[in-house]
Amino acid sequence: MNQILGAHMSISGGLYRAVESARTAGCQCVQIFTKNSNQWKGKALTSKDTELFQEALVRCGISHPISHDSYLINLGTPSDELWLKSIAAFEDELLRANELGIPFVVTHPGSFTTSSPQEGLDRIAQGLLRVLEHTAGIKTRCLLENTAGQGTNLGFELEQIAQIIEAVEGGKPTEKTGDDFLLGVCFDTCHAFAAGYDFSSEEKYAKMMEHFNAIIGLNRFRAFHINDAMKELGSRVDRHAHIGCGKIPLEAFRLLLNDPHFENVPKYLETPKGTKTNEQTGMEEDWDIVNLRTLRSLLEN
Ligand SMILES: [Zn+2]
Ligand SMILES: [Zn+2]
User: Fold this and answer.
1) Which numeric CATH code is attached to 5-297?
2) Cα-only R_g, the chain
3) Structural domain boundaries in the chain
4) Which ligand is nearest the CA of 223, by number?
5) What's the pTM?
6) pLDDT digits (tens, 9 = 90+) for 100-109
7) Based on CB atoms within 10 Å of each CB, which residue in 29, 55, 172, 179 is the most buried?
């Protein structure tokens, strides 16, 4: 099974540095923030930034770059001020990614905070409609990420994501079976598990994917976040763990990594950084290297 595996990498020192770190860790793909993820506005990109980034991708043999939007953005908020600010910031994220030649921006749908889940979902759809209207014509598209459902975060049930897609595109998500969609999906394994999706046996995995195919269409799944979960199934707590060190059985990762539906759909680690002592050599190894090795060991021809 051919899989494109990589990780989220820091852009500290320059966007191109993330690509170089990806290569050092043995990645085939990379996810980045195009700016500090805790800031509303980033420094404008220069043509030099873009050039260095694209040159690094070629030089390092890294494909499928994607970006993740800022954590401040909340299109589900009942506050008009925050909603408009979020729309502007999300537009900026899409434009930056487009400038860098990044095809997809991953976004968490949003939180309803003091309103209700349904009001939140409506608000998110309305916000996305505005964003898409203002950025019409660009190549970069949004991927809605499923969430752990912590607090008032929406998008932990894939039905919620289907509802947003339907409201934005004006038709059932399953009607579009090709490349002509506006909104795709980024599936995070930790978030799914925390939200209560159990995909740890062949039967459960098949049932879950059949369901997603029926409500959204698996062709919209254009990226995966491969993370283990620190907390148990259905905890609604978003805490990522190293692969095989959390509560998700390795069998679940094996099933996903060998699913022919998602062959060539890039998969990114978002696991904690740092090093681990290799038991055989006694040397310190990057956790990304360790996690990628674990994932690759699960691949069947
Ligand atoms: Zn995310
Ligand atoms: Zn994620």
Assistant:
1) 3.20.20.150
2) 18
3) 5-297
4) 2
5) 0.97
6) 999 999 999 9
7) 29
